[in-house]
């Protein structure tokens, strides 16, 4: 047997330990383009320092260098940041930040299954980054809200203008948010929950 | 922090795919496909045996109190897909217990959402 020296496994710090009574975990996904503030939002509301989990993706197909014209396999490692909020002695919420670009959709399988819903984070300088993501969420039937992360040098638009620019129906909630601010990030999550609640109470009405 | 971490990618590749292959005894999917989610909570039931893989013994050590599959993956520096395979064995042998993330039918969606909203409001 080969003796490999591996780094010791270090578990959670004592202040990051969940009570033994926790029985239910739920998850919400924060999705958006690079640099839009996903990790910042997760960090703002998380009770633990955001952790990172990695997944490798093997893709067969034409590589970046398509002049070669050769079928090649590429292996990419994608990191996903996540945080945690204990909501009660029994219930805990996990928040996963995941990049929205199509090439990362392979991550979505295990991620969105069972998720309560998603917050699509948007930078108004790159609205178009979010179009594919929202289309994909719709396809998968994942309920979402849109949060505009206000960067100081980004143009500010009123919500109706943004709604029009993104061609979003009235039913999709759009809010302003500051991912660096704990209360603002918490409010984005609450907006998602209220939206889910409204979906739930309107569609489960007795026939 | 940005999404792909080039420096991390580097260190990961040092471990190499062979390491994953060895860890999971060549299996790429759990032999007994337990429905493990990234937020399934894992709790240790029995301590590690002497002949156990260090990674599995490590899981038993850090799961004294509940930890999600995602947290185990982060602390072990292993992808969720690999952790899932390791956990399938530990579940099979009764070393760990899993608390499924999908709420039981006894907890209606609306009630769950109310609990989440209540918790968030109290932050
Ligand atoms: N001014 C401002 N900067 C922000 C805001 N949210 C994030 N940032 C900054 O934008 C950069 C990218 O944020 P990050 O959370 O890493 O983005 P991610 O790639 O979506 O995870 C970081 O330097 C953050 O400090 C915000 O609401 N306002
Ligand atoms: Mg990030």
UniProtKB/TrEMBL annotation, chain A:
Sample GO molecular function, one term? ATP binding
Key words, A-Z: ATP-binding, GTP-binding, Hydrolase, Nucleotide-binding
Q: Which family does it belong to?
A: Belongs to the GPN-loop GTPase family.
What is the official name of this protein in its record? ATP-binding protein
Q: Which organism is it from?
A: Streptomyces piniterrae
The beginning of the lineage is: Bacteria, Bacillati, Actinomycetota, Actinomycetes, Kitasatosporales
Automatic annotation (TrEMBL), chain B:
Q: Which domain of life is it from?
A: Bacteria
Per the record, which residues fall in region Disordered?
A: 1-35
**InterPro entries in the record:** DUF742
Q: Which Pfam families match?
A: DUF742
Composition bias of kind Basic and acidic residues appears in 1-12
Q: Which PANTHER family match?
A: DUF742 DOMAIN-CONTAINING PROTEIN
Q: What is this protein called?
A: DUF742 domain-containing protein
């Amino acid at each position: 047997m080969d003796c490999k020296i591996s780094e010791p496994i270090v578990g959670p710090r004592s202040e990051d330990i969940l009570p033994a009574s926790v029985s239910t975990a739920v998850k919400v996904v924060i999705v958006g383009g690079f640099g839009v503030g996903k990790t910042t939002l997760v960090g703002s509301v998380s009770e633990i320092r955001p952790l990172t989990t990695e997944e490798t993706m093997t893709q067969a197909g034409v590589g970046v260098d398509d002049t070669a014209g050769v079928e090649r396999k590429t292996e990419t490692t994608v990191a996903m940041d996540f945080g945690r909020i204990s909501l009660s002695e029994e219930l805990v919420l996990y928040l996963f930040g995941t990049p929205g670009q199509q090439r990362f959709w392979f991550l979505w399988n295990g991620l969105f299954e069972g998720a309560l819903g998603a917050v699509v984070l948007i930078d108004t300088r790159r609205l178009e980054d979010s179009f594919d993501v929202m289309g994909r969420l719709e396809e998968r039937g994942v309920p979402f809200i849109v949060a505009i992360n206000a960067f100081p040098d980004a143009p500010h638009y009123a919500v109706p203008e943004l709604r029009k620019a993104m061609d979003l129906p009235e039913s999709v909630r759009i809010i302003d948010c500051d991912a660096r601010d704990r209360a603002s990030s918490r409010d984005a999550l609450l907006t998602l929950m209220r939206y889910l609640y409204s979906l739930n109470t309107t569609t489960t009405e007795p026939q | 922090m940005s999404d792909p971490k080039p420096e991390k990618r580097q260190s990961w590749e040092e471990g190499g795919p062979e390491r994953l292959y060895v860890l999971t005894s060549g299996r790429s999917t759990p032999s007994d496909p337990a429905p493990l989610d990234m937020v399934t909570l894992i709790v240790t039931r029995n301590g590690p045996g002497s002949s156990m893989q260090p990674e599995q013994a490590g899981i038993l050590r850090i799961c004294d109190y509940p930890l999600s599959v995602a947290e185990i993956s982060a602390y072990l520096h292993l992808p969720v897909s690999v952790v899932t395979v390791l956990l399938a064995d530990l579940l099979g042998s009764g070393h760990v217990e899993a608390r499924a993330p999908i709420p039981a039918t006894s907890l209606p969606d609306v009630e769950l959402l109310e609990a989440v909203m209540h918790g968030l409001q109290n932050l």
